[in-house]
Every structure is written in structure tokens, then in C-alpha cells.
Design a protein that fits this description.
Blueprint (H helix, E strand, L loop, with lengths): L1 H33 L1 H32 L2 H10 L1 H7 L3 H8 L1 H25 L4 H24 L1 H7 L4 H30 L1 H20 L11 H9 L2 H11 L1 H31 L3 H20 L1 H5 L4 H20 L4 H15 L2 H12 L5 H30 L1 H21 L1 H4 L3
């Protein structure tokens, strides 16, 4: 009898041990597997970003080779921004109807096809200024769709992997920033190694990798296809819904408008102000170092956003970012020696980095998930509008008034906008 009882107890003990062990293994597998969507999303984010960064170098270069016209090369770059502005608001509609996964894959596949056209046209002898402009315009259609779709996947992948969403926002923007640091250098290397036309073959492979990474995601956890989203899509209200939601939220509206002005100053600093200044003193190496410092500072602070927000309030981050951006721009505007210029460039870059993950986090927390596609589409449209407007105005200012007065005016504008944002009630009262 005692032996029987002991045997029974022993069996039950073994069964319980086995059951606990199996449960732990299952949990480990689940935890391990749940991190993979984050990995796939960020692989796609990085390779799509680096593809676009290489294209930004390769298209002006191949345009110059074919047309020998800097003016036409500038026209191609400027005009390429137009499709992005027009298409971006439709991103939310497409995501609501077809899902973030499908739109992201679709965007990267069509981007791959659009860049393959350049080497094919070169091989067949049909590459011309007109064909370059045509396919540059075509390729520009797809980028905002993929960018918006990937943004909407951040929160569900973070929740699936039990990962802090604000930290993931920072990682997402940091990887995107890293791709834009690596991309131009890689583009220049590819042009030197295989030629401008053949460099697009490599870009197409990168776009395919981005699409393939998203294809590994399981759609059920990523589809923002709630009933409300589908009803919005059917009614056609999506086109304005994102803009209306942003406008009604006083905090998001104030912050977005302020960041828009800062972007319209920050980005032309890289593309017009600094190249003009360093070209005038014939120091191209110094230009590269300063621009790298800007990009590196921005990337570091983007990666650090999750760490920062866990230790200080978002209001404190906003204050530091606005003050730092103002001081960095003002310091650079006086065109100091190289050492000080580099220091202020790092300050400006570090200050710019948190803005995008902070905005993403605030949109995620202040709007229901089924509205994220429309709101992010509206944000994307606004952000794509800032660079061409800023570059147009800054270019005119430099031509009409000179470099130094224009840069000082930009610095003063940055100070005024930052001060106005910081004393505004929506930002002062934000927790």
C-alpha cells in the first residue's frame, strides 16, 4: 500500500515537473518568437532607408552624366518631392483597406521595379533626361506609402514582443537615421566601383530585402483593419481624417507646426547653407565632417529616446530639444571656426533626433489605433512638405541677401518659434 502511494506521488511529481518544464519551454519559445516581428520590421526599415539614401546620391549623379546640366539635376531632385506630397495623404486609405503589411511590401516591390528601370534603359540606349525625370517621379510615389505603413506597425510589434513602444520608436528612427548616414557613402562607393547606372541594381536588391522582411510578418497581428477603420475607408473620410484629428488636438498641432518650421530650417542647413559656406572657403572635407556630426548626433539621440523618456518627462525632452536646436543653429549661424562649428553641429543634431520618435509616441498614445494610418499619413505629408519649402526659401534668401544674413535670419526664426512653442499652453501643460 505504502509503495503504491509512493509510486503515485512520484508519478504525479514527475508529471508536474514535466508540465512546468513544458510550460516554461512554451513561454520561452513564445517570448523568443514574439521578438521576431520587431526584428523583421527594423530590417525592412533599415534597408528601405538605405535604398532611398543611395538613390538620393545616384539620381543626381546619373542625371549629370547624361545631361551635363546641374540645373536639370536640381530640377529632378526638386520635382521628385511633388508626388510624395500628393500621395502621402492616401497612405491611410490604402493601409485601412489592405493592411500595413500589404502596403509596405507593395511599396518596396514597386520601388525596386522603378530603380531597375535606370540600368535597363542605360543598357538599351534609351536613358535620357526625360526618362530619368519620369522614373524619379514614379519612384517618389512609393516611399511615403512604405514609410507610413512601417510606422503603423511599430506599436503592434512592440505589444506582441512585450517591448516598450517608446523605446522601439527611438530604435526605429535611429536605424532610419543610421541608414541615411551609411547610404550616401555607400552610394558614392557603388558609383565609383560599378558606375551610376549599375548601382541601381544593388538598390533594387535592398528594396527586395525590405519587402521580404515584412513578408515574414504574420498579418493577423499587424492589420489595422478594425471595423471603425474599414468604415472610414469606405466613406472616404480618411483623406481628411488625419489632418482633422491633428488640428483638433492642440498639443499635437502646436508641436507639429513648431517641428515643421524647425525641419524647414534644419534640412536646408545640410543641403544649401553648409555646402555653400564650405565651398566658398574650399574645404569640402570639413563639410563632410560637419554634416556627419549633424547626422550622428541625430541618430544617437533617436536611439537614446527610449532611455531618456524612462528617466525624464516628455515635457523636459521637448524643452531640451527646442533650446538645443536654437542654440545649435544660432552658434552655427555666426560661422565660427571649425572646432566650434563642429560642436554646435553636434548640439543641433542631438536636439533634432528626439522630435520624430516623440511625435510618433504622442500620436500612438493620443489617438485610437484604427486612426493611426490616417494620422501618420497626415504627419508624413506635412513632413514631406517642409524640405522643399525650406530649400526654396533658403535658396532664394542666399541668392538675394547673402549667406550670413540668411543664416542669421534662420537662427532668429528658430529662436522665436522655439520660444513660442515652449510658452504655449498646450506644451506647458503637457505631462
Amino acid at each position: 500500500m505504502l509503495h503504491s502511494i509512493n509510486t503515485t506521488i512520484s508519478q504525479r511529481f514527475r508529471e508536474n515537473v514535466i508540465r512546468v518544464h513544458e510550460q516554461r519551454l512554451s513561454q520561452m519559445k513564445t517570448a523568443s518568437g514574439s521578438q521576431m516581428p520587431i526584428f523583421y520590421l527594423q530590417v525592412s526599415n533599415f534597408f528601405s532607408g538605405i535604398s532611398n539614401a543611395v538613390v538620393m546620391i545616384a539620381i543626381p549623379w546619373i542625371t549629370l552624366e547624361v545631361t551635363d546640366s546641374p540645373a536639370f539635376a536640381g530640377l529632378v531632385v526638386a520635382v521628385s518631392a511633388i508626388p510624395s506630397l500628393l500621395v502621402a495623404p492616401f497612405g491611410g486609405v490604402l493601409i485601412a483597406r489592405f493592411g500595413s503589411k500589404a502596403v509596405s511590401i507593395f511599396a518596396d516591390l514597386l520601388s525596386a521595379i522603378s530603380v531597375v528601370a535606370f540600368p535597363i534603359l542605360a543598357l538599351t540606349g534609351y536613358l535620357s533626361g526625360f526618362s530619368i525625370l519620369l522614373f524619379a517621379l514614379l519612384g517618389a510615389i512609393f516611399d511615403p506609402l512604405g514609410y507610413t505603413a512601417r510606422k503603423t506597425m511599430i506599436q503592434p510589434t512592440a505589444e506582441l514582443g512585450k517591448f516598450d513602444v517608446q523605446k522601439l520608436n527611438g530604435i526605429h528612427e535611429g536605424l532610419l537615421g543610421s541608414s541615411w548616414i551609411i547610404g550616401p557613402a555607400l552610394g558614392a562607393w557603388l558609383i565609383a566601383l560599378v558606375g551610376s547606372a549599375n548601382s541601381f541594381w544593388v538598390v533594387s536588391v535592398f528594396f527586395l530585402i525590405a519587402a521580404l522582411a515584412i513578408a515574414f510578418l504574420r498579418g493577423s497581428d499587424l492589420q489595422p483593419s478594425s471595423k471603425a477603420a474599414k468604415e472610414d475607408a469606405k466613406s472616404g473620410s480618411d483623406l481628411t481624417l488625419g489632418f482633422r484629428r491633428i488640428w483638433k488636438d492642440r498639443f499635437i498641432r502646436t508641436l507639429l507646426l513648431a517641428v515643421l518650421v524647425i525641419a524647414a530650417i534644419y534640412l536646408p542647413t545640410e543641403s544649401i547653407i553648409l555646402p555653400t559656406y564650405f565651398e566658398s572657403i574650399n574645404k569640402p572635407l570639413d563639410l563632410g565632417i560637419v554634416i556627419s556630426a549633424l547626422a550622428a548626433g541625430s541618430t544617437i539621440s533617436s536611439f537614446a529616446y527610449g532611455w531618456l523618456v524612462a528617466r525624464i518627462s516628455s515635457k523636459a525632452i521637448i524643452r531640451i530639444a527646442f533650446i538645443g536646436a536654437s542654440l545649435g543653429t544660432l552658434g552655427m549661424a555666426f560661422l565660427p571656426g571649425f572646432g566650434l562649428m563642429l560642436l554646435f553641429a553636434v548640439i543641433l543634431g542631438l536636439s533634432w533626433g528626439p522630435f520624430s520618435p516623440l511625435l510618433t509616441s504622442k500620436i500612438q498614445s493620443r489617438f485610437p489605433s484604427h486612426e493611426h494610418p490616417m494620422v501618420f499619413s497626415a504627419q508624413t505629408a506635412v513632413f514631406y512638405a517642409a524640405p522643399p519649402i525650406g530649400m526654396l526659401l533658403v535658396g532664394f534668401g542666399v541668392e538675394a541677401f547673402g549667406l550670413s544674413p540668411t543664416y542669421l535670419f534662420l537662427a532668429i526664426t528658430m529662436l522665436v518659434v522655439s520660444a513660442a512653442a515652449l510658452v504655449s499652453k498646450p506644451i506647458r501643460t503637457e505631462s
